[in-house]
Amino acid sequence: MFTREQVAKAIDHAVLKPNFTDKDVAAHCKMCVERGVGNICVRPTDVAAAVKATRGSHTTVACVIGFPHGSNRSEVKALEARLAIKDGANELDMVMNIGKFLSGDYAFVQKDIEAVVAEAKPKGVLVKVILETSLLTPDQVATACKLAEAAHANFVKTSTGFADGGATPEVIDIMLKTVGKTMGVKASGGVRSWETAIGYLKQGCKRLGVGSTEKVLDGAPDAGTGY
């Protein structure tokens, strides 16, 4: 059984569209605080404002790193991570270098993740690695999970929301079976209803990446306390 409050706490509310203004970011922060959303995930230049807007609440702030394609140099991702942490970010959602992964350069991919983890871990900041699973085969999803695990990241995440396709129960199953005992799994992309959110939580996901958070939470059964 999951209550509306429990689902809200599991949500990483995404505020990542390129056309969002400062006013939009402030409005999304206000909504997250009012509705008990666990985390708000913002663009690098929005971190400081989001931290200020959520101060004193239970909503933490995540920053995307190397977003949305993951092809930034590792040194740039590390600097981006360092600055986000300095601005007050509690968590980092970094994009795996998808091109290098598909090229088979797994050593590069692991070191790329390690560069961000090295900035985050000493500060107690969580690192989630976005795999962009819609671009990968099932075997590649499992391999990418293992690389993130070897790099000591905290979570693996399905999608940026900017590629074709998002989370699916099938890909979540692979991620959970591969690293579910050692890492958190985050379903992101296409989580637009209460039923979909509940389905992924029941499956074993610890976090949900959601853009339409109000719609999801407003879909909770009115009469009951959970689902």
Number of strands: 8
Do you know the CATH architecture? Answer: Alpha-Beta Barrel
Classify the secondary structure makeup into a structural class. Answer: alpha/beta
Outline type: globular
CATH class: Alpha Beta
Radius of gyration: 16 Å
Distance between the termini: 5 Å
Q: How many structural domains are formed by the residues?
A: 1
Q: What fold name stands as the CATH topology?
A: TIM Barrel
State the low-pLDDT regions, or none.
none
Taking all residues together, what is the mean pLDDT?
Answer: 96
Please state how the strands of the largest beta sheet are arranged side by side. Answer: 1-2-3-4-5-6-7-8
User: CATH superfamily name?
Assistant: Aldolase class I
Number of helices: 10
Task: Report on this structure.
Helix 2 packs parallel to helix 3 and helix 6 crosses helix 7. The protein is 45% helix and 16% strand. The chain has a single domain, classed as TIM Barrel (Alpha-Beta Barrel). It has 227 residues and is of the alpha/beta class. It contains ten helices and eight strands. The model has no long low-confidence stretch (mean pLDDT 96).
Helix-strand blueprint:
Layout: H1 4-10, E1 11-15, H2 22-35, E2 39-42, H3 47-54, E3 60-65, H4 74-86, E4 91-95, H5 98-102, H6 106-120, E5 126-130, H7 138-150, E6 155-157, H8 169-179, E7 184-188, H9 194-203, E8 207-210, H10 213-218
Parallel strand pairs: 1-2, 1-8, 2-3, 3-4, 4-5, 5-6, 6-7, 7-8
Helix pairs in contact: 2-3, 4-6, 6-7, 7-8
